[in-house]
TrEMBL record:
<dbReference type="InterPro" id="IPR016162">
    <property type="entry name" value="Ald_DH_N"/>
</dbReference>
<protein>
    <submittedName>
        <fullName>Aldehyde dehydrogenase</fullName>
    </submittedName>
</protein>
<dbReference type="Pfam" id="PF00171">
    <property type="entry name" value="Aldedh"/>
</dbReference>
<keyword id="KW-0560">Oxidoreductase</keyword>
<feature type="domain" description="Aldehyde dehydrogenase">
    <location>
        <begin position="17"/>
        <end position="483"/>
    </location>
</feature>
<dbReference type="InterPro" id="IPR016163">
    <property type="entry name" value="Ald_DH_C"/>
</dbReference>
<dbReference type="GO" id="GO:0016620">
    <property type="term" value="F:oxidoreductase activity, acting on the aldehyde or oxo group of donors, NAD or NADP as acceptor"/>
</dbReference>
<comment type="similarity">
    <text>Belongs to the aldehyde dehydrogenase family.</text>
</comment>
<dbReference type="InterPro" id="IPR015590">
    <property type="entry name" value="Aldehyde_DH_dom"/>
</dbReference>
<dbReference type="InterPro" id="IPR016161">
    <property type="entry name" value="Ald_DH/histidinol_DH"/>
</dbReference>
Length: 487
C-alpha cells in the first residue's frame, strides 16, 4: 500500500500505511503561507494501536543480533542520503529553513545519525571481582559480575518542529540500535518529513511494528502516546511546560524519561575576548533556524570594558543579515514556524521595550508581505530580572546584560531556570575553563558555538532530564542489568 493518497499522507502503524480516523489537516509553508501537503490526524485509538504494534514487535527485534539491527540503520542512512535533494526541499517547505540548513543540518545530520548508530558497540562490561568473607549470606567466595545494557522496551518519541530530520533520527536510531521499538509522534507543524523517514526505514528492511509514526494536532494524540500501558519510556524534545506534563504522566507509571527541554543560553563575554568570534557565534541566534533552537546563546552577558563595542558590532551584524525567502541563495534568515509564533516573538520585543530595554537592531516586521518573518533583534541595556532575559523567546532575539567581574558574570549566568548550553568567550584560556566549570549548564562552549557530536547532550535544572548523543544515547535508551556469579 502506498504511504500517500490523493487525500494526503497515511499513518504508519504496524508496518502498514493506514488511513487516519480523523482525516487530514494542511501543513503550511511559513515562507509563503501556501499548503505543503496534507498531514494525517490520528485518533487516540490509532495511537494505542501503534503502541500495541510496537509492544508485539519488541520481543523479536530485541533478540535480533545487533549487527543485523545496525545493517538496517546503515541502509536507511544510504536511502536518506540518496534522496537528499527532495527531502531537503520538503524540510525547507515545512520549516522555513534556508536551503543550506535544510540540506546540511536537517537531512544531512539525520542521515549521519542513522549512519552513526549503524556501528555496533559493546553492550556489556566486566565488573572487578569482589572477595566476600563468610557470613550470614554464605561461605567465603569470589563473586564475579557483568553489567549488561538491555533495551528499555517501547519508546514513545515526541519530536520538535525546528528540525524534523535530525531530532527524530537522534531518537529513533539509537533506540533501534539498542533493540527498542518506537512510536514516533512528530510535531504537528512539520510531520511530513518524518513520514519520509519512515518510508526509508521500511525500505531498509525494518520489521513490522518496530517503527510506527502517528501525527495529529489534538492534545489527545500525544497524551495517548505517553499514557499507553504498552509504552516503557518517553523521549521528548520541546518546551519545559509540556515536558513537565509528560513527566507527571510518566511518574505515575514509573516510565523512563529522556527530556530535552527549553534553554536560555548565557554567553559570558569577557573584556579580553575575541570580539569577531563572539559576534559570529552569538549571531547564529539570528540566523540558525531563525533563533528557534534551544541551544542558542540568546542571553549575552558582556563585561563592561567590552559592552559598548560588543553591542555595536552585534547590531551591525544583525542589520547586515538578509531576511527573506529561504529558497534564495543569499538568504540568511528565514521565517519562524507560524503566524502565532511570530506574534509571540513580537510580543516579547514589545515587552522588552516596556521593561526598559533599548532596541538597537530590528524590532520591526520585515518587508515580505507573505510569510512569518521576524527581523533579527538586539535588546541592549537589559537587566537579568527582565522577562526578556529570563524566558525562552525561541526566535531571533538577543538580550545583552552588562557585568563587572568574573564572579558577577557567573552569578548572572547561573541566575536562570534553565541550564542547557552556556558559552564563554575569553582570551585567557585558564579563566575560560575555570568559568565553564562554574556554570550550571549541561554543556559549555569555550570560544565557540560548535558542538562535538559525541559529547553528552542534555540540561541542568528545567532544561531537561538525562543525556544523549554518541554513546550516551545508547545508555539513555537502555537499562543496565547486573549478572553476578561465584568465581
Amino acid at each position: 500500500m502506498s504511504s500517500r493518497t490523493d487525500d494526503g499522507q497515511r499513518l504508519f502503524v504496524g508496518g502498514a500505511w493506514v488511513e487516519p480516523d480523523r482525516g487530514h489537516y494542511a501543513v503550511t509553508d511559513p515562507a509563503t503561507e501556501e499548503t505543503v501537503g496534507q498531514a494525517p490526524e490520528a485518533s487516540p485509538d490509532q495511537v494505542r494501536e501503534a503502541c500495541a504494534a510496537a509492544r508485539e514487535a519488541f520481543g523479536p527485534w530485541s533478540r535480533t543480533p545487533p549487527e543485523e539491527r545496525a545493517a538496517v540503520l546503515g541502509r536507511a542512512a544510504d536511502l536518506i542520503r540518496g534522496q537528499l535533494e527532495p527531502y531537503a526541499a520538503l524540510a525547507r517547505a515545512e520549516t522555513g529553513a534556508t536551503t543550506g540548513t535544510a540540506r546540511a543540518m536537517q537531512v544531512g545530520v539525520g542521515a549521519a545519525r542513522f549512519r552513526r548508530y549503524a556501528r555496533v558497540e559493546p553492550a556489556e562490561w566486566a565488573i572487578p571481582p569482589q572477595i566476600n568473607e563468610a557470613g550470614p549470606m554464605g561461605r567465603a567466595g569470589v563473586m564475579g559480575a557483568l553489567a549488561v545494557r538491555q533495551p528499555v522496551g517501547v519508546v514513545t518519541c515526541i519530536t520538535s518542529y525546528n528540525n524534523p530530520w535530525a531530532n527524530p533520527a537522534g531518537k529513533i536510531a539509537p533506540a533501534l540500535a539498542m533493540g527498542n521499538t518506537v512510536v514516533v509522534k512528530p510535531a504537528p507543524q512539520d510531520p511530513l518529513s518524518v513520514y519520509r523517514m519512515a518510508e526509508a526505514l521500511q525500505a531498509a528492511g525494518v520489521p513490522r511494528g518496530v517503527v510506527n509514526v502517528v501525527s495529529g494536532r489534538a492534545v489527545e494524540v500525544g497524551e495517548a502516546a505517553v499514557d499507553s500501558p504498552d509504552v516503557d519510556m518517553v523521549s521528548f524534545t520541546g518546551s519545559t511546560a509540556v515536558g513537565q506534563r509528560i513527566a507527571e504522566v510518566c511518574g505515575r507509571g514509573m516510565k523512563r524519561q529522556l527530556m530535552e527541554l527549553g534553554g536560555k543560553g548565557a554567553a559570558v563575554v569577557f573584556d579580553d575576548a575575541d570580539l569577531a568570534s563572539a559576534v559570529a557565534g552569538i549571531g547564529t541566534t539570528f540566523s540558525f533556524y531563525s533563533g528557534q533552537i534551544c541551544t542558542a546563546p540568546t542571553r549575552v552577558l558582556a563585561q563592561r570594558g567590552v559592552y559598548e563595542r560588543l553591542v555595536d558590532q552585534l547590531a551591525s551584524y544583525a542589520r547586515r543579515l538578509k531576511v527573506g525567502d529561504p529558497r534564495g541563495p543569499d538568504t540568511v534568515v528565514g521565517p519562524v514556524i507560524s503566524a502565532a509564533h511570530r506574534d509571540r516573538v513580537e510580543s516579547y520585543v514589545e515587552l522588552g521595550r516596556k521593561e526598559g530595554a533599548v532596541v538597537v537592531a530590528g524590532g520591526e516586521r520585515p518587508s515580505p508581505e507573505r510569510g512569518f518573518y521576524v527581523a533579527p533583534t538586539l535588546l541592549a541595556d537589559c537587566t537579568n530580572d527582565m522577562r526578556v532575559a529570563r524566558e525562552e523567546i525561541f526566535g531571533p532575539v538577543v538580550t545583552v546584560v552588562p557585568f563587572d567581574d568574573e564572579d558577577e558574570g557567573v552569578a548572572l549566568a547561573n541566575d536562570s531556570d534553565y541550564g542547557l548550553i552556556d558559552y564563554v568567550w575569553s582570551g585567557d584560556v585558564a579563566r575560560a575553563f575555570r568559568t565553564a566549570r562554574r556554570l550550571r549548564a549541561g554543556g559549555v562552549g569555550v570560544n565557540t558555538v560548535a558542538r562535538n557530536m559525541e559529547a553528552p547532550f542534555g540540561g541542568f535544572k528545567r532544561s531537561g532530564v538525562g543525556r544523549d548523543v554518541g554513546s550516551y544515547a545508547l545508555h539513555a535508551y537502555s537499562e543496565v542489568q547486573a549478572i553476578v556469579w561465584p568465581g
